[in-house]
Amino acid sequence: MGWGYNASGQVGIGVDSNGGCNCIPAPVPLLGVAEVTELAAGYEFGLALRSDGSVMSWGYNDSGELGNGSTDLDATPKPVAGVANAVAVAAGREHALVLLADGTLLTWGKNEVGQLGLGSATGPETCTTVQCAKRPVAVPGVGDVVAIAAGNDASYALLASGTVLAWGAGENGEAGTGAAPVGSCKCVPSPVAVPGIGGAVAISGGQQGAAALLADGTVRAWGRNLAGELGTGSASPPGGCSCLGPVSPAGLSGVRQISQGGGHSLALLGNGLVQSWGVNLNGQLGIGSESAVGCFCVATPTTIGALSDVRKVDAGGDHSVALLPNGTLTAWGENFYGQLGDGTTGPNRLTPVPVPGVAGASDTVVSLSNTFVIVGPSQTLTIAFAGAGAGTVGGPGVLCSSNCSQPFPQGQVKALRAEPAAAGQFAGWSGPCTGTGACQVRLDTDATVTATFGPPKGTRITELKLIGKRKKRKKAILRFTAPGAVTGFECLLRKPRPKRRKGVKSPRRKKPRFSPCASVKTYKNLGPGKYTFKVRALNILGADPEPAKWTFRVPAARAKQGR
Are residues 448 and 414 part of one domain? Predict the structure, then answer.
């Protein structure tokens, strides 16, 4: 469903509004769009990722942002030819970015400042008066991507290593260097690493900057700061690009999700509260007032008192939206184009108000003057932890340092990164993912992913069976298991001490040692006596420091009774 400004058909209902407010002020279903797992909204166009990995587009198209080979506006959502196996979508002002399942990128639309990442500010085609790509093209030299974001005229990619790449517009420090690039284009036309960013698990693009959420729940933001957009507590003075390289918003920690908008940002904390900062000219910070002096902003993260237990937040141009656990929405800020969805085109709302007509929502996205929502089933992603070490698992909308669960739209693909507390102490994934790289989980059903940090912990013996007739020796069958990423087991059996024969010196017993074994271990020909069995799980970092132990006794055969 979508609502808000519709002068270019960006709501996706098959018509563009040409009279009155040029808007749709209340939620309406998009035309022919179903089985959607993720949405993205640009300046006046939209993208929908479907469960089969295809992408649909609609709306404004002067710069080829619909990817259909033309520059004609199309208010009806249609598939983008040549896109398959997509797992995420992002939209800038007039360009699109798609992440494929293999970690590579496709892009199309405007390339006036190198936002397509093709190596220059020229594109393969011309749209109106700018260079562009009217159909999807690959971003060269970029792979191993786990998440994407787009600003106005910039693009961002999070790599499996936890570093962030940026390209496109640079006049406002969008590349994170704290300065505008030298040259007539004032851009960075090829992907470059944002300096000083490591351990990132999610990214968000704003109008003239971006932010990365780190595994420790802190945020690093960069770009324009003329109106306190970076939350440092003060605005940068005019002159130059009025921008900063990666900085930490003042006092901000414990963040689970970050969203940047036109000039303001929202941070969802792990406790369900929301903080906001930046431009507040239209009440988009949700703190009960508009800022009318100085920078028209609040330059320090401030808690939105009217919100608690929030599931997701989205910052638009001058409005904001929060998704609640019960599938309803609340919105605040500018309402000139009906982007708050309450059926009116004003006034602005200074605190969150419910969006009527929406229930069962599983995800949201906002743009300059529009709001979109996915209505439909959710699946629960559970992150479990194993091993003797510690660490964090994160991804878009996910950040956990202990067992946690969270719902997402059915069919959505979540890319997860593991960040160990100590370098080199991630032992791998188990469940839908294996290995030590990024974990990509498709939520067609509920899923549990286990991350193992350090050597195994919690080896457990689950069963012992003694088999054999009374007169014969016994056979012992032992079953055991261990949580997390396990590469094998080692077993040890301490046998009973043999009886001493009078006048005969007992041979010196060899100390039993652990040796490799399968997850079911069988010992044959066990005579009477007391046995101690030990087993420990193994992974790529070592063995369980506390083996599981089971002591058992094989009884002596009873003598045959006479009549």
Answer: yes
Alpha-carbon gap, residue 4 to 10, rounded angstroms: 9
pLDDT in tens, 382-393: 999 999 999 999
Question: Which structure tokens are listed for 534?
Answer: 């030990």
Same domain, 413 and 445: yes
pLDDT tens by residue, 40-76: 999 999 999 999 999 999 999 999 999 999 999 999 9
C-alpha distances (whole Å) from 121 to each of 137, 154, 188, 206 are 15, 12, 9, 21
Provide the domain limits for residue 436: 379-453
Dihedral sign computed on CA atoms, order 189, 194, 200, 206: negative
CA–CA separation, 424 and 128 (whole Å):
52
Reported as a single tens digit per residue, the pLDDT across 109-134 is 999 999 999 999 999 999 988 999 99
For residue 370, being part of any structural domain is answered with no
In the chain, the amino acid numbered 326 is: N
d(CA 162, CA 453): 17
Residue 263 within any structural domain of the chain: no
Nearest to 203 by CA among 336, 88, 311: 88
DSSP 35: S
> What is the count of structural domains for the chain?
2
**Same domain membership, residue 531 and residue 471:** yes
Q: Are 409 and 374 in contact (CB under 8 A)?
A: yes
Residues β-bridged to residue 168: 154, 188
3-state helix/strand/coil string of 271-299: CCCEEEEEECCCCCCCCCCCCCCCCCEEE
List pLDDT tens digits, range 460-510.
Answer: 999 999 998 766 788 999 999 999 999 999 999 999 987 766 666 666 667
What integer best gives the mean pLDDT of the chain? 95
- What is the Cα–Cα distance from 561 to 563, expressed in whole angstroms? 7
**Residue 418 domain flag:** yes
> Which of 378, 421, 380, 374 shows the shortest CA–CA distance to 398?
380
**Does 115 reside within a domain?**
no
The Cα 78–Cα 80 span in angstroms is 7
- CA distance linking residue 178 with residue 223, whole number of Å: 7
Q: Which two tokens stand for residue 199?
A: 């351990």
The continuous run of DSSP H or E covering 414 comes out as strand 413-420
Concatenate the DSSP letters of all residues of 415-433 into one string.
EEEEEESSTT-EEEEESS-
Answering whether pTM is above 0.85, one says yes
Token digits for 521? Answer: 């271990």
155 neighbors 90 (Cβ within 8 angstroms) = yes
Q: Compute CA distances 315 → 145, 156, 353, whole Å.
A: 24, 17, 15
- The label of the residue with tokens 């992002």 reads 90
Task: Please give the order of strands across the beta sheet that includes 474-481.
Answer: 460-467, 474-481, 520-526
Q: The CATH number of the domain where 538 resides is what?
A: 2.60.40.10
Residue 356: cis peptide before it, omega within 30 degrees of 0? no
Alpha carbons 419 and 162: distance in angstroms, whole number: 9
